């Protein structure tokens, strides 16, 4: 499985459909709210949501929706990133509810070689997240600094830092057939 891309592998206009989707449970949403100290009753209190909101039920906290989609994109977009430089925009365009399944896809809008270091570049992308009905719920744009192939080769290739298994009494080493 590929984990991220080098600068040369990105093409402007390419779209990466992230897989698999993630079904958001009430427990997921509540835990995220409690971990981040977002105690708004819209997310945590069913009675409040039923009686006082236009939706009549709890809405998943937006930062969790964003975090899921960002995480989904890592294997395709930023798995080899040197740095996440900025989130230019983040829009929650429709609510997500407990039980919804989120899917995401990212389109490469632009790419620019670094002016200060010739072994990297910046990729500008837009990610959209949508639910099981295809309804777009979140859109964000970000810039990611990614390595060029030369950067990766200088640091150990595709999986830098990966150790080599060492034979011992429990494993004699690779067997030839």
Please characterize this protein's 3D structure.
The chain is of the alpha+beta class and 177 residues long. The protein has one domain (9-154): Thiol Ester Dehydrase, Chain A (Roll). The protein is built from five helices and five strands; from the N terminus they run βααααββββα. The chain has helices at residues 26-35, 41-44, 46-52, 62-78, 149-154, and strands spanning 15-23, 83-92, 101-113, 120-130, 136-147. The protein has a five-stranded antiparallel β-sheet. A hairpin with a 5-residue loop joins strand 4 (120-130) and strand 5. The longest helix is centred in the middle third of the chain and has 17 residues, at 62-78. It is globular. It holds the Pfam family MaoC_dehydratas. Belongs to the enoyl-CoA hydratase/isomerase family. Residues 12-126 form the MaoC-like domain. This is MaoC family dehydratase. Residues 151-177 are annotated as: Disordered.
Itemize the secondary structure elements and their pairings.
Blueprint: E1 15-23, H1 26-35, H2 41-44, H3 46-52, H4 62-78, E2 83-92, E3 101-113, E4 120-130, E5 136-147, H5 149-154
Antiparallel strand pairs: 1-3, 2-5, 3-4, 4-5
InterPro entries: HotDog_dom_sf, MaoC-like_dom, MCH/BMMD
Domain MaoC-like: 12-126
Region (Disordered): 151-177
What attributes characterize this protein structure?
177 residues; Thiol Ester Dehydrase, Chain A; five-stranded antiparallel β-sheet; MaoC-like_dom; HotDog_dom_sf; MaoC family dehydratase; MCH/BMMD
